[in-house]
Automatic annotation (TrEMBL):
The species this protein was found in: Rhynchospora pubera
Transmembrane stretches, start-end: none
Source species, domain of life: Eukaryota
InterPro entries, sorted: CAT-like_dom_sf, Sec_Metabolite_Acyltrans
GO MF terms, alphabetically ordered: transferase activity
Pfam assignment, any one: Transferase
Record's protein name: HXXXD-type acyl-transferase-like protein
Keyword terms, alphabetized: Transferase
């Protein structure tokens, strides 16, 4: 294992600014939608991929290829190379938009090295918290200033390991959700493969940049009821001692869990993801030892693209999701069975229809606001983010499949879960779980949880299947 401490493990070698060539189709301004504006004060979205070190190219070549392909990616995804502008309006209120094509703007690209750290250290052993140094694999100096600017909206860090490379992306949440995040990551990788092969870059899934605005509310921009950004730009700090672990659920285990949930529910419509959600809600609530009367909620991010009528393009680049929830008492949740809890989760998902989405947007337009995570009712609740449907392991830059996906330190709190597709692509799921240490200790001894969670994929299998020598 690595001997370097988190404080001195990662060193910056060089920082670049990657700017795309001018895009004549890019507007000078992109107004933020009712799905974007609420996220002005939410932490950046941080996800990254771990790769075995390619044997046939040097680190210098990797850096050059990634910079060149990022330049081309920014040409196509031009909002990512812009900057956020928050303006105080005459007569009161604040408006926001992304400025595109400003001279000198672009994306920050950091080349770093993690001294003494290898792939095995990043993956972490079963039953151990993810290493603290992971937070240093992402550029973290992108804070919203009270003058209303962020510069840039995207930052990339490529970190050298002893035997591998970690590529971390930090994206301002006002311009992307999880769907758009992995759309961009995959497009960047596709461009890198094309350039390495000497092929013309023609994206298989070009982004759609037209922002969706609900009819009947006039022209954008959306006006917020604040007199300055200082009134809504708030930074949330997670608990200093937060246990953060990855758990693997095999396809076979999930099939059995889904079957159990449907048998107990008697409805026959519970999905695998709904069954897993119900399981985690129950097990975490039990680990917290809540009293019978204490309320607990299940919250989850749910995308709107396919639920709108007519649907948005799957390549819609921006935010298009809502947070839905259901609440019960701890006693009801645990006295009833898994199928009962799964049906609660199923209902909030099935009820998220076109009319429900439009109603949410209507209400927002009538009373606009910026989300403050400090005021969200997350006490005694569990919140699921990310999705096992995201094409995480399709991000192939030309040197093979990633070994693991990892997140940064942003947007984490007690009860936050993030779901990712399993590495072997057979319908398995990897779940990142953030809990206070005392709750994590109880969860890992919970009989219902232990009956479903699976052993992680062996480290040797990851390296062997990647086809890379390390």
């Amino acid at each position: 294992m690595a001997s370097a401490s988190p404080a001195d493990a990662v060193r910056t070698i060089k920082t670049y600014t990657v700017t795309p060539r001018p895009n004549p189709q890019a507007p000078r301004q992109i107004h933020l939608s009712a799905w974007d504006v609420p996220l002005l004060s939410v932490h950046y979205n941080q996800k990254g991929l771990l790769f075995a070190y390619p044997p046939d190219i040097s680190l210098e070549q990797i850096i050059q290829r990634l910079r060149s392909s990022l330049e081309e990616a920014l040409f196509h995804f031009y909002p990512a190379s812009g900057r956020l502008r928050v303006l105080t309006c005459e007569g009161g209120g604040v408006t926001c938009h992304v400025e595109v094509g400003i001279d000198g703007e672009g994306a920050e690209f950091v080349h770093a090295v993690a001294d003494g750290i290898g792939i095995a250290d990043v993956v972490a052993a079963d039953g151990q918290d993810l290493p603290q140094f992971l937070k240093d694999f992402f550029p973290l100096d992108l804070a919203v200033n009270f003058d209303g600017c962020t510069n840039p909206l995207l930052a990339v860090q490529v970190t050298e390991l002893i035997d591998g490379v970690f590529i971390g992306l930090t994206f301002n949440h006002v311009i992307i959700d999880g769907t758009s995040f992995w759309h961009f990551f995959n497009a960047w990788a596709e461009i890198a493969r094309c350039q390495a092969a000497g092929k013309e870059v023609v994206l298989s899934q070009p982004p759609v940049h037209d922002r969706w605005f609900i009819e009947g509310y006039g022209e954008p921009p959306i006006r917020l009821p604040y007199s300055s950004p200082a009134q809504f730009v708030v930074r949330f700090s997670p608990p200093p001692l937060l246990s953060d672990r990855m758990f693997h659920f095999s396809r076979e285990s999930l099939v059995n869990l889904k079957e159990r949930a449907n048998q107990e529910c008697g409805k026959g419509t519970i999905s695998t993801f709904q069954a897993l959600s119900a399981l985690m809600w129950r097990c975490i609530t039990r680990a917290r030892r809540l009293t019978f009367e204490q309320k607990t909620s299940w919250l989850m991010s749910i995308q709107n693209r396919t639920r709108l009528q007519p649907p948005l393009s799957p390549n819609y680049f921006g935010n298009s999701f809502s947070t839905v929830s259901t609440t019960t008492t701890a006693g009801e949740l645990l006295d009833n069975n898994l199928g009962w809890a799964a049906w609660l989760v199923h209902q909030i998902i099935s009820n998220h229809t076109d009319s429900a989405i439009r109603n949410i947007v209507h209400k927002y337009m009538e009373n606009s606001y910026v989300v403050n995570i400090r005021t969200i009712d997350i006490i005694h609740s569990v919140m699921m983010g990310s999705s096992p449907r995201f094409d995480v392991y399709g991000c192939n830059f030309g040197w093979g499949k990633a070994l693991a996906v990892r997140s940064g330190s942003s947007n984490k709190f007690d009860g936050k879960l993030m779901a990712f597709p399993g590495w072997n692509g057979d319908g398995s799921i990897d779940l990142e779980v953030c809990l206070l240490p005392e709750y994590m200790a109880v969860l890992e001894k919970d009989e219902e949880f232990l009956a479903v969670v699976s052993a992680p994929i062996e480290f040797g299998v990851l390296l062997g299947t990647s086809g890379k020598k390390v």
